[in-house]
Amino acid sequence: MAEPTQALAGVNNAVYRTLGERWYEADDDPIALLRAESRLRNPWLTRQIERTLGTGSRRVLDVGCGGGFLANYLAASGHRVTGLDASPEALTVAQHHDASRSVQYVEGDALALPFPDASFDVVCAMDFLEHVAEPERAIAEAARVLRPSGLFFFHTFNRNFLAWLVVIKGVEWLVKNTPRDLHVLRMFLKPAEVAAACARHGLGAPELLGVRPSLGLPFWRLLLTRRVSSDFQFRFTSSTRLGYSGFAVRAPLRTNPTGADPLLAERGDVPRSRRPR
Ligand SMILES: C[S@@+](CC[C@H](N)C(=O)[O-])C[C@H]1O[C@@H](n2cnc3c(N)ncnc32)[C@H](O)[C@@H]1O
Fold first, then answer.
1. Which of 85, 123, 139, 167 to mutate to test the pocket of ligand 1 (most atoms within 8 A of CB)?
2. How many angstroms is it from 217 CA to the middle of ligand 1?
3. CA pair distance 164, 186, nearest whole angstrom
4. Average pLDDT over residues 203-230
5. Are strands 234-237 and 146-157 parallel, antiparallel or unpaired?
6. Which residues, at least 6 apart from 253, have a Cβ–Cβ distance to it below 8 Å?
7. Closest ligand 1 atom number to CA of residue 62
8. Which of 173, 178, 231, 276 could anchor a disulfide with 191, C-beta 3.0 to 4.6 Å?
9. In the structure, what pLDDT confidence band is assigned to residue 258 with cuts at 50, 70 and 90?
10. Cβ-proximal residues to 47 (8 Å cutoff; 6+ apart), any chain
11. What is d(CA 222, CA 27) in angstroms, rounded to the nearest whole number?
């Protein structure tokens, strides 16, 4: 799919069309880092959905779903999942790995989502916002297709010298087969920028968690072999200076007389917001 929005991005999005089964199998490729990140994020994300929206099957859209690491996990957990990506090749791989056989995989552009307003309970954009030239349009589209009180999850990278050194140069130097422009510093996003864009599109202040690699044996093995072993781990941290995950709640349509969102107030479980840095 020739995506005008992708061509503008400057980041290498073409690589996701060429991976094939390497999405799930390669340890000599930075895609293995994405797999490792998803092992940390997926259970966290399902816990947050349950904590905030309660248990039960939710309508989830995974934007820029790639090979389906999250979409397939959520479907296996009983959610009704749609995965959207600009790469038909990635979607074929994702579908092949969907054990639930229930995910609707759709080729499309995150900046012009082919869904009606308010059609999902949860929208996810993991490792995605830094891959488009207009991340705010992606956030606006996510907010549009979210129903009131729905959840917007994201993961992206902070824009600073440390993130350039570790996330861009560190990966280029240390992980085999890292393509040029896998990430581009100017497309990284400061937490305050994401929060401001969320606010402009009716999403509440995001609750944020920093993400960094665990410095155990698999990390040192990576330094020696330039391969990412299957036990490589990321962990959550209070610092958002490298990568960070977060979620924001779509403003409710109407509030009750106490001013609280009825869905959240019912559960007495309003998420805390941390001031973005
Ligand atoms: C780094 S991958 C992330 C994949 C997945 N979210 C994950 O965390 O495993 C970025 C994905 O965004 C997709 N992408 C880039 N620009 C897009 C756009 N404008 N619309 C939809 N998908 C896009 C790419 O094809 C790629 O699969």
1. 85
2. 30
3. 10
4. 95
5. unpaired
6. 148, 149
7. 6
8. 276
9. very low
10. none
11. 10
Angle at 57 between CA 53 and CA 59, to 5 degrees: 85
Q: Stretch 123-135: mean pLDDT, rounded?
A: 97
Atom of ligand 1 nearest to the CA of 155: 8
Interatomic CA distance for residues 110 and 139, integer angstroms = 9
Third-level CATH fold of 4-267:
Rossmann fold (3.40.50)
pLDDT tens, residue by residue, 34-45: 999 999 999 999
Q: What is the pLDDT of residue 1?
A: 36
* Cα gap 65→214, rounded to integer Å: 25
Map out the domains of the chain as residue ranges. Answer: 4-267
Task: Output the ligand 1 site: residues, CB below 6 A.
Answer: 3, 5-6, 13, 16, 34, 38, 64-66, 69, 85-87, 90, 109-111, 126-128, 131-132
Question: Model's pTM, two decimal places?
Answer: 0.90
**What is residue 9's predicted lDDT score, i.e. its pLDDT?**
56
Mean pLDDT of 62-89: 98
- Sign of the dihedral defined by the CA atoms of residues 263, 269, 275, 276, in that order: negative
Phi, psi of 87, rounded to the nearest 5 degrees: -100, 110
